[in-house]
Write a structure and sequence with these properties.
Number of helices: 8
Structural class: alpha/beta
Largest sheet: 7 strands, mixed
Bound molecules: flavin-adenine dinucleotide
Order of helices and strands: HEHEEEHEEEEEHEHEHEHEEEEEEEH
Shape: elongated
CATH architecture of the largest domain: 3-Layer(bba) Sandwich
Helix content: 10-25%
CATH topology of the largest domain: FAD/NAD(P)-binding domain
Radius of gyration: 22 Å
């Protein structure tokens, strides 16, 4: 489960391939998008604008995020000649970059490494002319069209925006946990439970998600030990009852993980008693962290609705309260949280964006073969 990924391959990075990216723009069959009345986009430092990277210009579609949702949206938008610009994030590729074996993504009967899968997504998007900027968006202005987004001090204009910034799993923050991620440490039981058949695993957390993950893991594991800092769970009664009545589930109350043990794979946990501070070690084959996710929505909150947990609220399938701004993937979906559902969402958002651009006269109708 060693992560051998060395970076994206065969992909035209915008900073390295500006000339070619510009030629992609020229080849478009569509008329240029409506000129902006005044130069709306003033990069804070004009010298940082890379020619051809979409900075300082108005793009038909800007996609924010380069996980399965963003890159699928890019594939669909690029094939519809929308010349998408993907602002991929400072750490591109999304959550699957943090895992090793992905065995539930259709089309890969032998499984595939998460980073390799994301590399293939990106190559496929690049093949149809998608341009990439590997930076984080730090500010947006959705008050009028063209919308404006800033990354690394450069302004980008967009007639339509697809937000696919995902939700980051919250980790404990231990060095040993980071070192053993994908080697027994996971944040997704649906994704990785299968690897722990007849093993003893631990689940950290005390809310509904942790209880659900623990119950799910009993399908595979021989024993599931829940580790909770307090002496009762926060989760709902029905979820508590379901987990606690399961003979495979036991609980270490008033306990937290002090260290994850193991050289190459998880072999145990050092647990600290939250009341006495005492530490003891227990053998364990796996550790699932279920202490929540942080939706990456901070930069959009002034403009778009978020639910009480901070996830974007979607209207009419993939839309938002701002016409022309669409949403895809885990940034709004905290129910399924899978690569395939995020990818499906990216497809829907791209189709909706294309139809909307067409409805407001900014593109021609996509041919049926575009999809
Ligand atoms: C350990 C682990 C293992 C998993 N294993 C599997 C599995 O085996 N199978 C499966 O189907 N699913 C798995 N998942 C779940 C899966 O990874 C997610 O459901 C999926 O990645 C969500 O896709 P997304 O595109 O919505 O978001 P993400 O993949 O989270 O991508 C979000 C993107 O947005 C970018 N971004 C965030 N903020 C900004 C910003 N301000 N500006 C620009 N870009 C930004 C990020 O850099 C990233 O590129 C796993 C998750 C984890 C944590």
């Amino acid at each position: 489960m060693v992560n051998e990924f060395k970076g994206f391959s065969g992909i035209q990075m915008i900073d390295e391939g500006a000339a070619e990216a510009a030629s992609v723009v020229k080849q478009t069959a569509f008329p240029a998008i409506a000129p902006v009345a005044e130069p709306l986009l003033q990069p804070t430092d004009p010298s940082t604008v890379e020619p051809g990277d979409g900075g300082g210009a108005v793009n038909k579609v800007v996609i924010v995020g380069s996980g399965p949702a963003g890159l699928t949206a890019a594939i669909y938008a690029a094939r519809a000649n929308l010349e998408p610009l993907v602002i991929a994030g400072a750490v591109p590729g999304g959550q699957l970059m943090l895992t090793s074996d992905v065995e539930n993504y259709p089309g890969f009967p032998d499984g595939i490494q998460g980073p390799e899968l994301m590399d293939l997504f990106r190559q496929q998007a690049a093949r149809f002319g998608t341009r990439f900027v590997d930076k984080d968006i730090e500010r947006v202005d959705f008050s009028q069209r063209p919308f404006r987004l800033w990354a690394g001090g450069v302004g980008y204009g967009a007639e339509a925006v697809i937000i696919a910034t995902g939700a980051s799993a919250i980790w404990l923050g231990l060095d040993s946990e980071t070192r053993l991620r994908g080697r027994g440490v996971s944040a997704c039981a649906t994704c990785d439970g299968f690897f722990f058949r007849d093993k003893h695993v631990a689940v950290v957390g005390g809310g509904d998600s942790a209880l659900e993950e623990a119950t799910f893991l009993t399908k595979f594991a021989s024993r599931v030990t829940m580790i909770h800092r307090r002496d009762e769970f926060r989760g709902s009664k029905i979820m508590r009852d379901r987990a606690l009545k399961d003979p495979k589930v036991d609980v270490r109350w008033n306990s937290e993980v002090a260290e994850v043990l193991g050289d190459d794979v998880v072999s145990g946990l050092a647990l600290r008693d939250t009341q006495t501070g005492e530490i003891h070690e227990e053998p364990m084959d796996g550790l699932f962290i279920a202490i929540g996710h942080t939706p990456n929505t901070d930069v959009f909150r002034d403009w778009l609705e978020v639910d009480p947990k901070g996830y974007l609220v979607v209207h009419d399938q993939t839309g938002t309260k701002v016409e022309g701004v669409f949403v895809a993937g885990d940034v709004h979906d905290h129910r399924y949280r899978q690569a395939i559902t995020a990818a499906g969402d990216g497809c829907r958002a791209a189709i909706d964006a294309e139809r909307w651009l067409e409805s407001v006269g900014l593109t021609e109708a996509a041919t049926s073969t575009a999809w």
